[in-house]
Amino acid sequence: MPVKSTKPTEEEQPQDPEEPVWTYRGYKLKTSEFVTAMVHFFRAEVTRANVWRQRLDTTTNWAVVATGATLSIAFSQPNIHHGIIILNTMLVTLFLYIEARRYRYYELWSYRVRLMETDFFAAMLVPPFHPAPDWAESLAENLLLPSFPISMWEAFGRRLRRNYLWIFLILAIAWVAKYWLFPVPPADMKEFIGRVAIGHIPGSIVISISIAYFLFLILVAVLTVNMTRATGEVFPRFTVGEQDLRGDQIHPTDELKGIRSWLAPRKKRRQFLAFIVTGNAKAVADRILSDMGRGVTAVEGKGMYTGAERTVLMCALTVTEVHNLEASVAREDPQAFVVVSPAHEVLGRGFNPLAKED
What we know:
single chain, alpha+beta, Alpha-Beta Plaits, four-stranded antiparallel beta sheet, two-stranded antiparallel ribbon, 9 helices, elongated
């Protein structure tokens, strides 16, 4: 008589449950759900960055079309005043300012895209590569409190060097040619200076203001050339030895000095120090440790009004954890007194290292 095997088939064997990415207050986010959410979020941020990238091209097109139309009118007849070129220069400057502002918004969305590309998708494609430990924290902070990753000066200088410097150069040459060639070339420099006068403003003052303006543009273009905080540009992020992929010596911890430090934005992670006065210190501390994974330090205190002994808990945290801290404390001790103060800097485990690496 054949013996029926009691060994479970492959279909009957129990499957290992999918390990959740995180568990919080009974809610579980599975790995597949997390990846799906990240993929949709990535697509949304790419679309948003692409929309703002197209808006940059639109502003440049405005400047090119306005310049072409102005030069066509200015050189169509000898008696047309050269002020039309000056007005167009002011209009192009306005376009440059608008484009720099749009570029900052583009960099905001591009910053999020680059974070996911380098620290999420790259980690999936190359298993030995490990994402930065604070990439998720950086992304969450940028979602909760959006801030521009680059300064207005860097955006202004970058767009100026990429496109507008050539437009301004064409306008300057056209402005000089307009009164040097029409109606006839001047006999000497004195006559030329007299031609460029605008109303009661002498030609020497007009030329001086024009030279000062173009020197200002050149100065901005030069001083912002080493500002590479823009994530939408093709800049190497990872190093090979002591050199980057372009062969230049880099020092990631170095800060900009001199006038460039004034032009650069002050970007620093928002960190806080929480003081919790509670009569149920053990339960509150255990809740913070289990839910948030943050260290807690207890200090004995005394209420001067009631005279009751109280325990004061101290906990360092980031901006994305403030709400979780409040919820954890309220769950264990609704009568607790919580003070959350900004911290200038937090050094140690879980934050920036206390000792800088050589």
